[in-house]
């Protein structure tokens, strides 16, 4: 027991502070991905409702591809593909040496593309639930289209979409564990490194699991609070 | 030339020609992993869902804890804990004669995937069983059916109609998530692809793998549509 505490303590002896730094990286990746993925997802959802068959066809293709390909594979394709692309551009412009893509950016883009595909389904369902009369009423009051979306449609949209988007967030939080394979120093990366140097995998992967579980419970609680707040105008 | 080199030959992709056979072997392992763990997970989930709904209170709490924990943490971390973490208790496993199991990455993957998907499937089945109207069970009881018969002939067929789509989504998630087996030295489809890329630095092999995974998912989707049509053939839906 004393050994466990020493290994997980803060400072030179233990890995506690390193693990907490890893947790910060995990949360940063997830938080950085969220706005990018959700905005892209909303755009894809609006595209899938477009009258143009090309635009709605693109949205269908996008969601099919990114919902069907393993996240790990998407991550590798973005990371290595981005690497090769940037290198070609760099050499093509006549510069020497090598340029590398940051793992954080690659992880954020890959996870964001996947999140966009999954969240677009949630957005579509929520958009369908809003009666056309809401937009018409807003127009009759003299609101512009942008104002109508921001002041009338969006608040109602969020109320319907939140449970689904909350699920998307929980999935995203767990998927961030994959960025450790492209050398981002998240919880999993630190736990693996601690395992290599101390040969105590059971302790460190248990600690990692506990950290993830804590964040999941915290998120579930936070999402529940947000749902209550968004539903405050409705009688159950 | 063996058959598995042909797709690469036809497409003119040298990497795929050279590593086609390894990719085919990997595909078989991926399919085995997903099929076995999903099926075992399903049977486990039926029991868990039943106990979660009708078991004694401490059992219900324990199962609620189990599903919350395994759905709230990444599968990658669970897999590493089982493969690397439990692997450290080598002497203990040798004593109880289970070392052959925890030494093999394939068995560890199967174990991790099974307990993970069981947690998800149990929640799906619990929701489906709860959604059934109470009158169904009461009517079956009034007909003098035994509890086991009621469960198999009345409850499960109806619960499966409700739970079929989510269960299909879970199977698709398992296909995708099985790619992490490659991170514990297993040469599944993803593992074979990583090997091919590491040796050739040809990115197109990743795109080929993506297409294979997409095809797998599409096949499952179509089978599921067929199953849904069959399970709901007595209902007027269209």
Detailed description of the structure:
The complex is a heterodimer of chains A (236) and B (238). Chain A is mainly α. Chain A has helices at 2-7, 16-48, 53-68, 71-92, 103-128, 132-140, 145-175, 187-198, 201-230. Chain B is mainly alpha-helical and 238 residues long. Helices cover 81% and strands 0% of the residues of chain B. In chain B, helix 2 packs antiparallel against helix 3 (57-72). In chain B, 37% of the residues are buried. The model of chain B has no long low-confidence stretch (mean pLDDT 92). The chains are: A mainly alpha (236), B mainly alpha (238). The A-B interface holds A 64-65, 67-74, 76-77, 80-81, 84, 170, 174-178, 180-181, 187-188, 191-192, 195, 199-202, 205-206, 208-209, 212-213, 216-217, 220 and B 69, 72-78, 80-81, 84-89, 172, 175-180, 182-183, 190, 193-194, 197, 203, 206-207, 209-210, 213-214, 217-218.
Key structural traits:
heterodimer, A: 236 residues, mainly alpha, MetI-like fold, 78% helix, 0% strand, B: 238 residues, 11 helices
């Amino acid at each position: 027991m004393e050994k466990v505490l020493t290994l997980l303590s803060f400072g030179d002896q233990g890995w506690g502070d390193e693990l907490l730094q890893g947790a910060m990286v995990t949360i940063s990746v997830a938080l950085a991905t969220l706005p990018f993925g959700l905005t892209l997802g909303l755009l894809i959802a609006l595209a899938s409702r477009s009258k143009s068959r090309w635009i709605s066809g693109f949205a269908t293709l996008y969601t099919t591809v990114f919902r069907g390909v393993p996240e790990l594979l998407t991550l590798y394709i973005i990371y290595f593909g981005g690497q090769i692309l940037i290198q070609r551009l760099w050499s093509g412009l006549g510069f020497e040496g090598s340029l590398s893509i940051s793992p954080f950016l690659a992880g954020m883009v890959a996870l964001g593309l996947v999140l966009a595909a999954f969240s677009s389904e949630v957005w579509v369902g929520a958009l369908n639930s809003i009666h056309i009369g809401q937009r018409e009423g807003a127009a009759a009051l003299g609101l512009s289209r942008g104002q109508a979306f921001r002041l009338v449609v969006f608040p109602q949209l969020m109320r319907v979409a939140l449970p689904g988007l909350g699920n998307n967030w929980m999935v995203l939080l767990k998927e961030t564990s994959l960025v450790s394979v492209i050398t981002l120093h998240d919880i999993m990366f630190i736990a693996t490194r601690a395992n290599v140097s101390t040969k105590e995998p059971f302790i460190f992967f248990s600690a990692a699991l506990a950290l993830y579980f804590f964040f999941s419970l915290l998120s579930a609680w936070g999402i529940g609070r947000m749902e209550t707040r968004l539903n405050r105008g409705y009688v159950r | 030339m063996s058959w598995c080199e042909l797709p690469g030959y036809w497409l003119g992709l040298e990497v795929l020609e050279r590593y086609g056979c390894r990719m085919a072997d990997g595909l078989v392992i991926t399919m085995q992993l997903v099929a076995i763990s999903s099926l075992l997970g399903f049977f486990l989930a039926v029991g868990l869902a039943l106990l979660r709904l009708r078991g004694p209170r401490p059992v219900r709490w324990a199962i609620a804890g189990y599903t919350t924990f395994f759905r709230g943490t990444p599968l990658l971390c669970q897999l590493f804990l089982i493969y690397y973490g439990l692997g450290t208790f080598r002497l203990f496993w040798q004593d109880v004669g289970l070392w052959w199991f925890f030494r093999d990455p394939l068995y560890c993957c199967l174990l991790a995937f099974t307990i993970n998907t069981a947690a998800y499937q149990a929640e799906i089945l619990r929701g489906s069983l709860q959604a059934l109207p109470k009158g169904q069970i009461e009517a079956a009881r009034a007909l003098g059916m035994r509890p086991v018969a009621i469960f198999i002939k009345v409850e499960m067929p109806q619960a499966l109609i409700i739970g079929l789509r989510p269960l299909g989504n879970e199977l698709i998630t398992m296909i995708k998530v099985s790619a992490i087996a490659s991170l514990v030295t297993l040469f599944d489809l993803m593992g074979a692809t990583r090997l091919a890329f590491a040796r050739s630095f040809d990115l197109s092999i990743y795109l080929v793998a993506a297409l294979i995974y997409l095809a797998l998912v599409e096949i499952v989707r179509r089978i599921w549509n067929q199953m849904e049509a069959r399970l709901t053939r007595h209902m007027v839906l269209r």
